[in-house]
Design a protein that fits this description.
38% strand; 1 helix; five-stranded antiparallel β-sheet; 1% helix; 62 strands
């Protein structure tokens, strides 16, 4: 018996739903965007709508779903998913309706051991209906670049089909209101990679007929199945070579099915071999059209796309070719009989020009050598309305070609194309009172290390890209923001200092402790720095010459939590063993003030306010205005996970306090206080929950009233501003 699933309404961005616990003023108070980086994570797939020019969707492995319309930037569509539902922001597949472009669907589920759901929208993704399902997805696991696993039937767009990893084929016949298992489909896929089911790889409809094709990861090579009767029965196509998996498929308008194969499903494991084939339903036969340019190719093939305007024109990408140039794109105008590539390592010829001018950090320190074409290129798409544009996702961003039809006449321009799409996993930000020549923000994050942001509205340049290490903490001198320091888990780059606003970083050559990582606090003028190594026996050390000389910090035990006063360079604060400590000599010696603090509490200091230190733990918020000699308890925010400070509304008022927490009435969210914690206003709503808010870290902007930044695990640095 088929399993029948029905849905329940969920909110999305826009005006679809409201939160009765959120005040009207709070809902209208803020506009949300991102600190501009330019991607930063893996874009696993993109889908152009074939009917509406300029409409395209992009899915990411941990950052949710994005939409772009003609002449606009990418817009996030899954910010309505919050901490309880963050597991859905790893997008397994997306499907745009070729008949009614306003309709769109996605499968959400980051890991196979978490719940999954299917989502449907009839307003371009502004609002969504969710359907819980009994199977699982792996949006951030092996095979996440395969697909698309979800497809709308162009002959009857009420039908949407989805191929799961572990429970076969599913479909809806009413625009996603009810889903049922297609029990006639004969296999579920038996290939596993890194212990993860890969299952069904893609679903495709033949535009020259009503036939349906499904690709499955089967170890015996029997990987493609066809149905000519709407899924009532299935025929296996001739088997491909055992151990070869058709990761992507694309039909020409004439009904030929083009396939990109690899010997594994990537991307965590790099394929070592692959093939490109075309299947002709008229003859029921395959032809091998693998590019053979004697160009030194390694690895397999990832994405493939046929030009909607030219049925013999197609592009295919390599997958797992870790060349100095990156992955290659091969382009054919004759159905794969002959090919042109972006580069040839054997002849050392290149036929492309990377344009990273709008996100210059993508050069990744290569100097005179241009940026790589990208890696983990699992999906490529020829714009159905512009044959010159091939859009493809990489492990760091989105690129698009500008003139690929001229590949045999001139170098192909490949340009950054991820405006508005941000997918970094962020650890911490520091927003000092910046000046014209100093950064507005320092950030640290996964994969990319971090940046010194000279302008938070523009993608960073390569000179201010940290690049080096796996960061743990960052701090800067608030009286001279060009002086900063960050720590790293890698012992060869455990401590790194800059004196020029992040243009250059000097790694400490000799440390007083073999450990790496840990916490760091810098004096207000940068004269001293205190480091607590990231180890069980993390005894603090101090330096006054950027790590050339070190001193034991006296008076503190192991694993102290430290902070520097933002005004007085001599003042440092610490929490250790349940007591509060202060240093009045630049961090060399600490003494207890006798004040008791929670074991989990961390000191947070306030710019422009000497002696002001706040202690934050999950259930207790308190502050001192006399350097920790006494504390006042704030009871108006019963749950608080992080706090930070931003520019006051007027010059004579206290800095604005921002918090992640719960006031007991308006739910968990982002709060703001302009009266030193006497009252709080929730400034986000249920349409703006931003997925996984981990680690918990928030700060205001020292220069811009009302501006707040906070960390996400996959949605980059979210930036909120008072609505104009």
């Amino acid at each position: 018996m088929a399993i029948l699933l029905s849905g329940a309404l969920l909110c999305g961005i826009g005006t679809g739903c409201t939160d009765s616990n959120t005040t009207e003023s709070a809902k209208a108070d803020y506009t949300w965007s991102n600190v501009a980086i330019g991607g930063g994570g893996y874009v696993t797939g993109m889908e152009y709508n074939p009917k509406e020019e300029g409409l395209v969707y992009a899915r990411t492995d941990i950052g949710g779903l994005y939409r772009r319309k003609k002449d606009t930037d990418w817009v996030p569509l899954t910010d309505f998913l919050g901490s309880d539902d963050w597991g859905y922001i790893g997008i397994e597949s997306v499907a745009t309706d070729p008949v009614e472009p306003n309709r769109v669907y996605f499968a959400g589920g980051t890991y196979m051991n978490n719940p999954a759901a299917l989502f449907a929208s009839d307003d371009y993704g502004d609002t969504w209906t969710r359907y819980d399902v009994p199977f699982h997805c792996g949006g951030n696991q092996s095979g996440r670049g395969c697909g698309e696993r979800m497809r709308v039937n162009p002959n009857n767009n009420k039908e949407v089909w989805f191929g799961s990893r572990d429970s076969g084929l599913w479909k809806t016949e009413d625009y996603g209101k009810n889903w049922e298992e297609v029990t006639s489909f004969p296999v579920t896929g038996n290939y596993k990679q890194e212990s993860n089911n890969i299952g069904i790889l893609w679903v495709e409809f033949d535009p020259a007929s009503t036939d349906l094709y499904v690709g499955v990861a089967m170890t015996d090579g029997q990987c493609i199945y066809k149905s000519a009767d709407g899924g009532e029965s299935w025929t296996a196509l001739p088997a491909n070579a055992k151990g070869m998996y058709p990761l992507h498929a694309s039909f020409s308008t004439e009904g030929k099915l083009y396939l990109a194969y690899s010997d594994n499903c990537g991307p965590n494991l790099s394929p070592t071999d692959g093939a490109v084939c075309v299947y002709d339903p008229k003859t029921d036969s395959f032809t091998d059209i693998t590019p053979d340019l004697k160009d030194g190719r390694q690895g397999g093939f990832g994405g493939i796309s046929v030009d909607a305007q030219n049925p013999d024109t197609l592009v295919v990408s390599t997958l797992g070719w870790w060349s100095d140039n990156g992955d290659n794109l091969y382009y054919s105008k004759d159905g794969g009989k002959s090919w042109s590539g972006l580069f040839n390592l054997s002849t050392k010829e290149t036929n492309y020009q990377m344009d990273t001018s709008e996100a210059q950090w993508l050069d990744w320190g290569r100097g005179e050598n241009q940026a790589k074409t990208g890696w983990w290129v699992a999906d490529v798409n020829i714009n159905p309305f512009n044959s010159d544009e091939v859009m493809y996702g990489t492990g760091a961003t989105i690129y698009s070609t500008r003139n690929i039809t001229k590949i045999d006449e001139a170098p192909v321009t490949i340009a950054f194309d991820a405006y508005g799409l941000e997918e970094t996993a962020v650890f911490k930000m520091i927003a000092p009172p910046s000046k014209d020549d100093s950064p507005q923000l320092y950030s640290i994050m996964g994969d990319l290390t971090g940046f010194a942001h000279m302008d938070v509205t523009k993608c960073p340049d390569d000179a201010h890209f940290m690049k080096n290490g796996k960061p743990n903490d960052v701090d800067c001198a608030f009286l001279n923001p060009n002086i900063a320091v960050y720590t790293s888990e890698e012992k060869t780059s455990a401590l790194n200092f800059t004196q020029d606003g992040g243009k250059t970083w000097q790694t400490v050559a000799h440390k007083p402790d073999p450990a790496a990582g840990g916490q760091v606090a810098m004096a207000a003028d940068g004269s001293t720095c205190v480091w607590v190594p990231g180890s069980v026996s993390g005894k603090p050390y101090a330096t006054n010459d950027n790590g050339k000389t070190w001193f034991y910090v006296e008076g503190l035990g192991y694993n102290a939590k430290i902070a520097a006063d933002r005004v007085n360079p001599k003042l440092f604060y610490a929490a250790c063993d349940g007591l509060f400590y202060v240093s009045k000599d630049g961090g060399y010696t600490f003494t207890s003030t006798g004040q008791m603090v929670a074991d989990s509490a961390e000191p947070i200091t306030v710019f422009g306010q000497e002696g002001n230190v706040w202690m934050s733990s999950s259930t207790l918020l308190m502050y001192s205005e006399d350097g920790g000699e006494s504390f006042e308890t704030v009871k108006t925010l019963p749950t608080v996970d992080s706090i930070g400070f931003g520019k006051a509304k007027t010059d004579d008022s206290y800095p604005v306090i921002y918090a992640e927490g719960n006031d007991g009435e308006n739910g968990y969210g982002i709060y703001r206080s302009e009266d030193k914690g006497k009252s709080w206003l929730r400034i986000n709503d249920e349409q703006h929950l931003f997925g996984n808010l981990n680690p918990k870290y928030i700060t205001g902007d020292s220069n811009v009233y009302g501006r707040v930044y906070f960390c996400t695990d996959g949605r980059g640095i979210v930036m909120g501003d008072v609505a104009q």
